[in-house]
Specification:
Distance between the termini: 31 Å
Order of helices and strands: HHEHEHHEEEEEHEHHHEEE
GO molecular function: phosphatidylinositol-4,5-bisphosphate 5-phosphatase activity
Shape: globular
Strand content: 15-25%
Radius of gyration: 20 Å
Pfam family, one: Exo_endo_phos2
Strand order of the largest sheet: 3-4-2-1-11-10
Structural class: alpha+beta
GO biological process, one term: phosphatidylinositol dephosphorylation
InterPro entries: IP5, IPPc
Protein name: Inositol polyphosphate-related phosphatase domain-containing protein
Length: about 375
């Protein structure tokens, strides 16, 4: 694990570059970065980078931005029997809010139809985080799970936790696909956290976008009705979006492929967003500087190229947006001129966490209340 990223960072108001045409064009023409990323993808030896390591945090107060860690991980039906220390770095890294969205969590999708409980996973998370972190709210649907922990110093400022589910599987009843969500108030700001598992398959991008838009409409409506007819302020969306690389890739060609930006430019989610073909065009995402997180061997960082081969993909993603509500102040300036209070500080994937055919992806944010 690196303590300092080799990738260029942008100063405020965009502390971390966003995955859009401007930044894609800039970084895809950087020879040194291209060489580094091509080698990481070829050998799958990516080492992630966390911000704020070894920086103790004073007790939370209204003058501080909230530091938030958000994680998404398709766990392939298992609970790791090893420590998650390298995922949270709890001894050397402080976050005020920790959100973990998982898919295929604890049990397989089929088994989860009959037993949906994620209590064992929640216990493991609580043990990993320790007594300083308290569970605020969680939600489960089939093999999906999302949970929000807050540092004990932030707990007095949190209230009105709610959970929501929306099935999009067989007949709209089975929850093998769909989404779950949690909403909370922090200092009168409404946070909405969504976790989804969308349709799989190389040729299913159109269906995935339909699922996404229906989930967003449903959860926004639920939050509005459960928070006194008030819209959310911040939306963070984790999930296995099942986005694939829109290219012909075979087990033979994948072993020697090393064109990182060539693949990234054909990412289906990116193509859909830039063409404004879906609701995702309203969301932001950090620039991707890590290899595809699917499909890998469970216990070794190598592509799965045998009988169960799949076209690789950046399936595991974290999207976000800020709902800039109309106020007296906002009527005097355009939304573009308003300062964003939700800022992405880091976006990366942790290839040290094995046991699944996916690798977890994480994002670090600051939020000014």
């Amino acid at each position: 694990m690196k303590t300092h990223s080799v990738y260029p960072l942008i100063e405020d108001p965009l502390p971390f570059p966003l995955f859009n045409d401007n930044f894609f064009s800039e970084y895809s023409q950087d020879p040194k970065l291209i060489g580094s990323l091509n080698q990481e993808m070829l050998h799958l030896n990516h080492k992630c980078s966390y911000k704020w390591l070894n920086q103790p945090r004073n007790e939370w107060n209204f003058e501080n931005d909230i530091r938030m860690l958000v994680i998404t991980w398709n766990m392939h039906g298992m609970i790791p029997n090893h420590s998650l220390k390298r995922l949270f770095n709890i001894d050397i890294l402080h976050h005020d809010l920790i959100v973990v969205g998982t898919q295929e969590c604890q049990r397989s999708i089929v088994t989860s139809i009959f037993c949906e409980s994620k209590s064992e996973w929640e216990v493991k998370l609580q043990n990993e985080l320790g007594k300083s972190y308290i569970k605020v709210q969680s939600a489960s649907l089939n093999a999906m799970h999302i949970i929000v922990f807050a540092h004990k110093s932030l707990i007095p400022k949190i209230r009105n936790g709610k959970s929501y589910t929306f099935s999009q599987g067989f007949m709209g009843i089975v929850g093998n696909k769909g989404g779950i969500a949690v909403s909370i108030n922090i200092n009168e700001k409404i946070f909405l956290f969504i976790n989804s598992h969308l349709e799989s398959g190389q040729n299913s991008e159109s269906k995935r976008q339909t699922q996404f838009s229906k989930l967003e409409t449903h959860f926004e409506s639920q939050v509005f009705s459960n928070h006194n007819q008030i819209q959310y302020d911040y939306l963070i969306w984790t999930g296995d979006f099942n986005s694939r690389i829109d290219d012909r890739i075979s087990p033979q060609t994948i072993r020697t492929h090393s064109d990182f930006f060539g693949w990234l430019g054909k990412d289906q989610m990116y193509l859909s967003r830039r063409n404004k073909l879906n609701y995702q065009s309203q969301f932001q995402e950090g620039m991707i500087f890590f290899p595809p997180t699917y499909k890998l061997l469970q216990y070794y960082n190598s592509w799965a190229v045998d009988q169960d081969f799949r076209v690789p993909g950046w399936c595991d993603r974290i999207l976000f947006k800020e709902n800039r509500k109309m106020t007296m102040q906002s009527t005097q300036q355009s939304f573009q001129e308003m300062t964003s209070k939700l800022k992405l500080q880091n976006y990366d994937a942790n290839f040290d966490l094995l046991g699944s055919d996916h690798r977890p992806v994480f994002a670090q944010f600051t939020i000014a209340l």
